[in-house]
Recover the amino acids of this structure.
């Protein structure tokens, strides 16, 4: 899994590429942990190039959202329809801030 | 709701009105036959009662006068049949006998007024028509109405035999060998004659036959033969009908517990542990208390879909209000869900799903509490209750469950299986929105579970 960081104003955009599943989840988790420790509290995750999210991936996102808490926010955009459905049906779309595209995600 | 309530009132009023007519018809027949056989002359108080009843029936008749025939029916035939029926009704209810009060006409020592009143016996047809109507309007209690019909038949047969048994010697002017003379009741009051006559008819018809009152001449022997034959058949009919009524009185209960007994004796025969047998019984007891049947959905499978929907939404109404997805759905989606949701009743300690299961659907909890436990059942990760649902993550992510769900007490859930979910999702795009809305009413337990790595 490829993750590239890009700082846009206050927000840090993390662009994911590949699948967020059991094998790549630890890598994603440590990446987020590093960002939070580095002082980033507004993390925007670009899911445009993510084709699949497993329960392990969801766990990473939930854990990260919990760590950021109220001091910042975890925003997601570019989710493909099947991933979006998982978020909607499970109710996680109310836990994360989900946006359709990058500009709206950056605007919050 | 209001529509139904009005309907209830209507049918209750109809039951009351038809019940009253039934009672009046019976009273008039009893008075008329009694006076004819035992009093022989019209009396003022009973005449008033009879004409009052006639008035009620004539008023009822006015509302049923023949109208233009129904569409599609053969006009000539149905018209003439209607007129014939109406003529009979008229004959049975119009007090023609009033005309004979003038002139003291008598036949065999009995006033013509009373003979003509026998035309009211045409009301017998009305009695059975009324019973049919009561059966139609009252919906429930058909067993009670069948008992009522039986009692009325028995009573009317015994009443007519009682009257005939006394009337025959009376018309013959009490021959010295006739039973009233032998018993010495000639000249006694009508009440005594009626009582003794009824007593003989009942003892003979029930085949008890004490033999204290016996036929004295050929006519009475013939009558006695008639009473014995009619009586024996009548009581055979009573017993047969009574037996079938009693066994059908609570058919659903009997068949339910028969089923339970079958299962239990099977378990005993296979030497299954007693505690399992007790668990099985508790499960059935719960089903009976809460649902009154083994499977509501299969019981109703004969009904056409719209009617089944109506019945199911009433039956499951209380439970389904606990399921958010049902509350938020549009009426069309709700109907679709009603037909697709499978009720799942789980006994205390029973498992709804187990660790490692392939996702088979979404479970909506409607009543009771369930625990999310580890595969060995030792660790409890969390508790879910009415309004919660699970199974969505594994279904959508196509993963296996990583924990089991165990019922604490009895619990009731509805399962939306994977195939139905796919179908409804494509037919009703609103389902996703409804689920998102429902998810806000979920307890936070599920989020915590995902954080713990538990996926259901």
């Amino acid at each position: 899994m490829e993750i590239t960081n890009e700082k846009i104003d206050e927000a840090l955009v993390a662009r994911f590429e590949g699948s967020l599943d059991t094998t790549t989840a630890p890598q994603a988790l440590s990446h987020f942990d590093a960002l939070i420790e580095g002082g980033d509290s507004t993390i925007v995750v670009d899911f445009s190039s993510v084709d699949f999210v497993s329960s392990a991936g969801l766990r990473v996102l939930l854990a990260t959202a919990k760590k950021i808490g109220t001091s910042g926010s975890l925003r997601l955009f570019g989710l493909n329809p099947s991933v979006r459905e998982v978020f909607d049906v499970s109710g996680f779309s109310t836990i994360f801030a989900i946006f359709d595209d990058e500009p709206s995600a950056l605007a919050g | 709701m209001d529509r139904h309530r009005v309907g209830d009132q209507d049918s209750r009023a109809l039951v009351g009105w038809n019940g009253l007519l039934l009672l009046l018809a019976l009273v008039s027949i009893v008075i008329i036959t009694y006076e004819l056989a035992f009093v022989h002359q019209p009396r003022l108080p009973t005449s008033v009662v009879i004409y009052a009843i006639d008035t009620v029936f004539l008023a009822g008749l006015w509302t049923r006068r023949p109208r233009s025939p129904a569409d599609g029916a053969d006009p000539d035939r149905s018209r003439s049949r209607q007129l014939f029926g109406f003529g009979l009704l008229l004959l049975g209810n119009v007090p023609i006998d009033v005309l004979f009060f003038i002139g003291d006409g008598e036949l065999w020592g009995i006033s013509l007024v009373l003979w003509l009143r026998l035309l009211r016996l045409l009301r017998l047809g009305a009695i059975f028509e009324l019973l049919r109507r009561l059966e139609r309007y009252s919906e429930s209690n058909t067993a009670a109405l069948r008992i009522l019909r039986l009692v009325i038949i028995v009573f009317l047969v015994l009443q007519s035999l009682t009257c005939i048994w006394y009337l025959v010697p009376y018309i013959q002017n009490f021959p010295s060998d006739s039973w009233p003379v032998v018993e010495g009741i000639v000249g006694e009051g009508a009440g005594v004659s009626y009582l003794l006559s009824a007593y003989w008819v009942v003892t003979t018809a029930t085949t008890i036959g004490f033999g204290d009152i016996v036929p004295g001449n050929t006519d009475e022997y013939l009558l006695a033969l008639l009473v014995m034959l009619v009586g024996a058949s009548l009581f055979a009919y009573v017993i047969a009908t009574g037996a079938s009524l009693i066994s059908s009185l609570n058919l659903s209960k009997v068949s339910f517990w028969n089923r339970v007994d079958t299962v239990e004796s099977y378990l005993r025969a296979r030497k299954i542990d007693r505690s399992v047998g007790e668990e099985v019984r508790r499960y059935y007891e719960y089903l009976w208390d809460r649902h009154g049947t083994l499977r509501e959905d299969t019981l109703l499978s004969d009904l056409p879909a719209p009617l089944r929907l109506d019945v199911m939404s009433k039956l499951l109404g209380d439970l389904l209000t606990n399921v958010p997805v049902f509350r938020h759905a549009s009426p069309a989606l709700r109907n679709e869900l009603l037909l697709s949701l499978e009720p799942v009743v789980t006994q205390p300690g029973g498992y709804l799903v187990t660790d490692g299961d392939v996702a088979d659907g979404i479970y909506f909890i409607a009543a009771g509490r369930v625990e999310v436990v580890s595969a060995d059942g030792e660790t409890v990760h969390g508790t879910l209750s009415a309004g919660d649902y699970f199974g969505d993550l594994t279904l959508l992510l196509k993963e296996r469950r990583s924990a089991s769900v165990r019922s604490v007490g009895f619990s009731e859930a509805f399962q939306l299986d994977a195939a139905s979910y796919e179908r409804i999702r494509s037919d009703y795009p609103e389902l996703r929105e409804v689920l998102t809305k429902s998810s806000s009413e979920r307890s936070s337990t599920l989020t915590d579970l995902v954080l713990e790595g538990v996926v259901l």
Notes: Chain B is about 60% helix and 10% strand.
